[in-house]
Amino acid sequence: MTDQMRVLMCAPETGIPLSTADIQELTGGLSGALQGVSVEFCSVAPDAADLALRLTEIREDYRGDIVILPTTPFADDMQKRLIPSVLATQSADAGRTLLARDAGVDPAMLRAARARVEEALQAHGAAAAPQESLLMIVGRGSIDTDANGNLMKMSRMIWEGMGFGWAEVAYVSGAFPSIEQSLERASRLGFKSIVVMPYVILGDAAIDGLHERVIGALGSTTETQVVTARALAGDDHVVHTLAERVNEAVAGNAKSVMNCQLCTYREQVLALEAHGHDHSHEHAHGHDHNHDD
User: Fold this and answer.
1) d(Cα 30, Cα 22) in Å, to the nearest integer?
2) Under a CB-based contact definition with an 8 Å cutoff, are residues 232 and 201 in contact?
3) Using CA atoms, how far apart are residues 187 and 192, in angstroms rounded to an integer?
4) If exposure means fewest CB atoms within 10 Å of the residue's CB, which of 18, 66, 188, 199 is most exposed?
5) 83 in Cβ contact with 70 (< 8 Å)
6) pTM
């Protein structure tokens, strides 16, 4: 398989270097899940020149499939505009260059988020019960409103699935509300603790500094406990999801046009686990599978 495919993970260039440890963890995990396939990382600048150069370098001695794999949780400007602009310049004679879909709103990603939150609560010895705590989901922020909206959707499912008293969504930059704006509202609600969950796959200095930023926004006199989770990075559920995206791209799988990933009849989904459905999927399934979400 190693001669038939190579994977090039991508993330948008923001001016803040991504965590080398997170990249290495995800690269190693993904290579293992794909049975030794070569996996490397490339940042994508606003002109996408670095991606074009890396593809040219790979094609100098390789003619198999190259799968470009976004590491942003939801499809944004990089995946919708920048990468396609580079793919349009690639010659089919050199081999297939494929774009995998984003991790998206997926049950496995919900489980990854839950695992990170539970890990943080255990590590910090959180005293407040979930119903007395506020969950703050933090995204990077995007000019793409669809990507920002998908984070809102995931946040609602994590909130209800884990039983928190309330949830807020904030963005590191580039979208409303900012962390400070969200906390200004949240601090009035009187929760005993705030659990901060960075919903990003790869961390950086801005993500590493979330705890201090939240403490600073709350003020030195606050008695609110702040618990901060890690980025999703190499969580097994994330690795599994991204490996699926790679395999879908190579196989030409059309699953991405369906809206069945969160169907409660197919499998248990965080926030919907108590509905008691039969998950065999042997029922009259009336919703249309041919629409695009």
Assistant:
1) 12
2) yes
3) 10
4) 188
5) yes
6) 0.85
